[in-house]
Amino acid sequence: MFLKDLRTQVLEANLELVRRGLVLYTFGNASGIDREQNLIVIKPSGVDYDELKPEHMVVTDIHGTVVEGNLKPSSDLDTHTLLYREFPSIGAVVHTHSEFATSFAQAGMYIPALGTTHADYFYGPVPVTPPLTDAAIGGRYVHETGLAIVNYFRQHKIDPLAVPACLVNGHAPFCWGKDAQDAAHNAVVLEAVAKMAYNTLTLKPNSEGVSQALLDRHYFRKHGPSATYGQGQ
Amino acid sequence: MFLKDLRTQVLEANLELVRRGLVLYTFGNASGIDREQNLIVIKPSGVDYDELKPEHMVVTDIHGTVVEGNLKPSSDLDTHTLLYREFPSIGAVVHTHSEFATSFAQAGMYIPALGTTHADYFYGPVPVTPPLTDAAIGGRYVHETGLAIVNYFRQHKIDPLAVPACLVNGHAPFCWGKDAQDAAHNAVVLEAVAKMAYNTLTLKPNSEGVSQALLDRHYFRKHGPSATYGQGQ
Amino acid sequence: MFLKDLRTQVLEANLELVRRGLVLYTFGNASGIDREQNLIVIKPSGVDYDELKPEHMVVTDIHGTVVEGNLKPSSDLDTHTLLYREFPSIGAVVHTHSEFATSFAQAGMYIPALGTTHADYFYGPVPVTPPLTDAAIGGRYVHETGLAIVNYFRQHKIDPLAVPACLVNGHAPFCWGKDAQDAAHNAVVLEAVAKMAYNTLTLKPNSEGVSQALLDRHYFRKHGPSATYGQGQ
Amino acid sequence: MFLKDLRTQVLEANLELVRRGLVLYTFGNASGIDREQNLIVIKPSGVDYDELKPEHMVVTDIHGTVVEGNLKPSSDLDTHTLLYREFPSIGAVVHTHSEFATSFAQAGMYIPALGTTHADYFYGPVPVTPPLTDAAIGGRYVHETGLAIVNYFRQHKIDPLAVPACLVNGHAPFCWGKDAQDAAHNAVVLEAVAKMAYNTLTLKPNSEGVSQALLDRHYFRKHGPSATYGQGQ
């Protein structure tokens, strides 16, 4: 893939977040990676979305050193680069403060798989990280944020493409996907799923997740070699 | 009715769901039946709504065998066909994951008839099916989903045109009607009724349904031979 | 005032309800009265809002007998006419099934005066009627709906212009005002006030109303001879 | 700064409140101050937003005496002028009845710092004033409203630019900032933060605020000499 195409895709993913009401002002960022060249394209920090053009996207190496662009990259860059280094299967990362997903993060609660909408996209609960220690917050904070996500997925042996999102405790969600469009799509669905989980839990506080059988059926209807959804193959 | 008109009506019903905010991306589908020819027209699977044209609609027989169209039909086809076979009075089926109706389905709760808005459209609670067994989920799942609806209505002797909607446990609502426009209209009203039921129950958890007298008065004001609402006879 | 102007005002009030998201499909109606001629102008029943023109408005006498127009008047006409007969100070009536006001009506709960937004428009709680008896529902139901409102205001000595709205138990709100624009405005503010009351009560269930002093201060800032709000006088 | 520019900025701040859905009809007002000339520019009372032009803005001295303009200033003027006199670091004031911030004010609850979205803008909880006494309400009410805010900040030694908002008990929020755009921006973010705090507290009633370390990290990432967010410096 040409870097020019990646710039366009990353911009488009950022704009999709705005169109779907997931970001207020500049509260969000999307990036994508070119795995062949090991280059990351990310939104610049604090620039208005309606002024963003492909050439404003910042290009960095996998460690976050800027290699192209005059603007400063998103202040969450170090979380993005860590996720790319540690989750080799992902092609894009999206961070938003979308209302309901953020509300679960603020409550320190994971989002249980309460229905098939969830199961179509997330093969199990969307986890929440433990709170960061004061030392981690006072140290390499943005890096530590990514580390909390990666450690959680490793310890619980979760495949990042099977559960392409994580809530950071007291903060907000990070999502990812195979490419920028997919990551933005997952962020939009996460917010819808979070909203319905909120409704379900406030209506019936002890609601339980769907059965493993239903989780399997819906997830594998949309993913993997036996997927039957859509016009694909 | 010509099949061409049915294609247009089914497309229009699908678009009405989008306009009213009931579907996110491709999460929904509407179909209609020509009872004379026993042919069903249904939305294709996973195609963007803004690209949909009448000629993209898929035509199947009453058992779901495609007889016209190059696209794959909605993955929920087997639920639609079963409802058409078992509910001979209905002319169209609509499935959405609309937020509040889905939240009740996720909570495994029926929607009680808490007010006249509900009573104008649904002559009694909107039921929720029992959870499917693992065997049903692992077997002909989409067919079993329809069977759970049909069995519930049979066992409780509910006329499907008097209560033109059902929540599938842990999943989402299915609605129907005498034609595609009517089914989509019922899906839109169901969501409004579900939202107000959510508000009512979170405000006053032990809220009871309206009296049978009020249910009768409102339902028969809009339906049946003594209807007085609207300009029609 | 010419009847032609009243038709235009009543149409405009109906459209304001749509613009502000208070009505779904045809769930709502507004009317106005010409007190000199004792003629009422009301929306026809079940006609799409985007087709409504001033000439579609139906004109009736104070007892609801149609004197002009080929369309059937709103099915809630008898509530409107009763309110005009019993509340001589009002010039217009609006009925909606707006989401949050209707949710309070469904819960059988009045809307307490929890803040100054409420106090600016409603001089005390917005009451809810007692449930209608089966006999009233089975009898002149629409008339009885109006009677429940009027009886409540009489028994509690509430001035209908000081509290220009009432929730009908298990049904929805009726609002009114000095003219059609004012009644529609009150319906829009009622919904905003109901939404904030819902939030307040779900956040802190035992929330109490504002003090009489604050109610007086805000209400009389906008109403009566010492009003200081706006550019008037 | 020329007064003409301030008029334009204040108008633009008022319009931003409308665009972001923070005001219904005329429920809101923004003002700005020229600290060199000690002149305040404020929205007129009760004028429709879509008719507002820069020349409609009212100019007063720091005590609220109108020095330019034919329209009456906002009825909340005395709160604005007091805040300008007592908080010399602020350049603009915004008052809205935005839904969720007002709901907290009605519940008499402060908004705890539950997440990083809050911490990015408000260095600690957004406080709520104690209820006004009947004497204060019956006296110089609008002035007393400002006094309740100022007294709270003084007693608790809160820097008004570090926490640029306060909820007035039983009423609604007042926000401020270094200029009109900043104050409006703070009002928009306050509403988003209030909405997420509402969700968090209804999901998990005993939710606690973020740690002091996280509050420090996020607040000082966006404010002060070591800010790293945006393209600034």
Strand percent estimate of chain A: 5-15%
Shape of chain A: globular
Chain pair sharing the greatest interface: A-D, 34 and 29 residues
Estimate the mean pLDDT confidence of chain A: 95
CATH class of chain A: Alpha Beta
Arrangement of strands in the largest sheet of chain A: 4-3-2-1-5-7-6
Largest sheet of chain A: 7 strands, antiparallel
At the fourth level of CATH, the homologous superfamily of chain A is Class II aldolase/adducin N-terminal domain
Structural class determined from secondary elements of chain A? alpha+beta
Low-confidence stretches of chain A: none
Counting DSSP H or I runs of 4 or more residues, the number of helices of chain A is: 8
EC number (chains A, B, C, D): 5.1.3.4
GO molecular function (chains A, B, C, D): aldehyde-lyase activity; L-ribulose-phosphate 4-epimerase activity; metal ion binding
Keywords (chains A, B, C, D): Carbohydrate metabolism, Isomerase, Metal-binding, Zinc
Protein name (chains A, B, C, D): L-ribulose-5-phosphate 4-epimerase
Detailed description of the structure:
- The structure is a homotetramer of 233-residue chains.
- With 233 residues, chain A is α+β, with helices and mostly antiparallel strands.
- Chain A has one domain (3-222): Class II aldolase/adducin N-terminal domain (L-fuculose-1-phosphate Aldolase, 3-Layer(aba) Sandwich), CATH 3.40.225.
- The first copy, chain A, has helices at residues 3-19, 77-86, 99-107, 116-119, 134-138, 141-155, 180-203, 212-222, and strands at 28-34, 39-42, 58-61, 66-68, 92-96, 165-167, 173-177.
- Chain A has a 7-stranded antiparallel beta sheet, with helices on both faces.
- In chain A, a hairpin with a 4-residue loop joins strand 1 (28-34) and strand 2 (39-42).
- At the C-D interface, helix 7 and helix 8 of C face helix 3, helix 5 and helix 7 of D.
